[in-house]
Amino acid sequence: MQYTRLGNTGLVVSRLAFGCMTFGSGEGALGSVYKVDQDSANNLVAQALDAGVNFFNTADAYANGQSEKMLGRALGKRRQEVVIATKVGNRMSEALIDQGLSRQHIITAVQASLQRLGTDYIDVYLVHRLDPYTPLEETLETLNDIVRQGMVRYIGFSNWPTWLAAKAVGLQREHGWAPFRAAEMYYSLLGRDLEYEMIPFAQDAGIGIQVWSPLAGGFLSGKYTQDNPGGNGGRLSGFDLIPFDRDHGYTVVEMLRAMGAKHEVSPAQMALAWLLAQSSVTSVLVGASKSKQLDENLGATELHLNAEELADLGRLTMPQAIYPHWFNQAIYDTQIRDALITPVTHNS
């Protein structure tokens, strides 16, 4: 297993983190995702621990709290050996106020998460989504309070736009509040938008990026093909959230399959290895409902892509630049770049 620090902190985390979204059961949009019972969760967590994983990720809203409960039980006495990240913000019941990032809900939610996880502190607490109805200052001050009270060690955000995260960091510095040190964001070979704004900002602000859905909802596993677009009832058949060009996706999978054959690995391992090769990525979240699937994902840490493979995948999946990035790229001063021993490299 590979390890790194979470952003500008002394917290050491495994570069593959175990995502517990599959733990529990339920109906609705995520019914096809919740499929792991407690016994299976115990085995998967033990397998991850044995492989050196020390970073576990969940959320209060996953299976309406079941995921947190099951993770806490599966870790048991080994809780002190690991880093737990969980999230707040999504609706937890029909009660109107049982959602969002208000002071009322965050305090209620963190206390509930602590109880479900069976712990007296949460290592990394992330706001799960935007809340346009709560003042940003209220959210940030409350997060600061729960850090100062010892309920939470580090805080972060998930699925926020860069401008809002940058505004939040400015307010945290102005008021001396606990700073954001983690960002859980979507990033994959089929979704590289993060590279234009969020990654440069996060690196500058000392924020570690945790990647969710590194296989684009499972598409990059290779189980979805033009002949079998449903993947025999895979996750995308019930939870198809991530937008991408399917035809282009099939082309990317074919390249992963061809490259993987040379290494005797799967397309999924190739896609994970590409993310692990990105210096901007702290940890990649891998979920699993079966031991074999988890073992395959964990094997990505042993795969090292060469410069040519990284370049080929980079060219094939490069997102179209948006303004002002295409303009700045067009007028970039290559003469000074080539003259410097350590040039600055960025997308702008």
TrEMBL record:
NADP-dependent oxidoreductase domain boundaries: 15-313
InterPro entries, per database record: AKR (IPR020471), AKR_Detox_Biosynth (IPR050523), NAD(P)_OxRdtase_dom_sf (IPR036812), NADP_OxRdtase_dom (IPR023210)
GO CC term, one of those recorded: cytosol
UniProt-listed CDD domains: AKR_PsAKR
GO molecular function, one term: oxidoreductase activity
UniProt keyword terms in alphabetical order: Oxidoreductase
One Pfam entry name: Aldo_ket_red
Protein name: Oxidoreductase
Organism: Ktedonospora formicarum
